[in-house]
Amino acid sequence: MSALGAAKGGGEGINPTASIIGIVIIIAALAITAVMAAPALVAVIGVIIGGALVGFGVHFVPVGGAPAAMGQSPGIATGVAMLAAGAGLAGLFGGAWAAANPAFGIAVVIAAGAIGGGLMMAITCLMVNIVYIFGMGIPAASGKVAKDPITGDSQAEYKSQGTEGHGLPFISYVGGVIGGLLGGAGGTLIYYELLQVYSAMLPAMFNASAEEVLPIAVSLAGIFAVGMFLVNAVLAAYNITGTIEGPHDPKFKRFPRAIIGCAVASAVCGLFAVLIVVV
Length: 279
What we know:
EC 7.2.1.4, about 65% helix, two-stranded antiparallel sheet, elongated, methyltransferase, transferase, 2 strands
């Protein structure tokens, strides 16, 4: 089938059969973990929750791609995975800093990661609007709604003909920050849970002290957290299929499907991340 003859990608419904298969895979991953690495079961559950948060958060981020670079579509002029990865890495740096302090519990660590991701998105959205408004001379307007759901400002008067809108209307800005908060929190939760597993199991594996294996534990947790963040961001990008303005975009309704997919992928990745220090 040619590209022109192919059906339009993406729907909003959930495939029941695929969802059941996904749930079975999650249960199987948890069962294998319970048998082969019982102390890490809670960590794998945390990894699954973190992956679902990343997949959900990506749907809040306004992504405009190439059309946004030309002022023909609202959003940030880059791809979903790249933007989500930027927010996630910023969150991971904040979360890793907090995790290195023994006085901070899991709540502080995840909050630090969320703030890092949200702050990155807030600055990015601000600079995008400065470039659009003062550099390109175009106002921020949505093509998906008649009025901004938060401010109530009318959009049609500011939208250029022949475009789907441009810049970042206020609802898209708020959505970007929320997406950064969720992505940063999810990525940090994955990192924190894996760090606890590696810190507990590596000393016996290498017959060394906890202080001696700490750099290895931090490195492994960081590598797997970044990798899982990218896996979940790409899965969410395939679910969005193109551009999205934020929570007011009709594509946002697809997020349940992404959450299921990201949970399944995180369960499998989390299982392998744990088994490397058990088998």
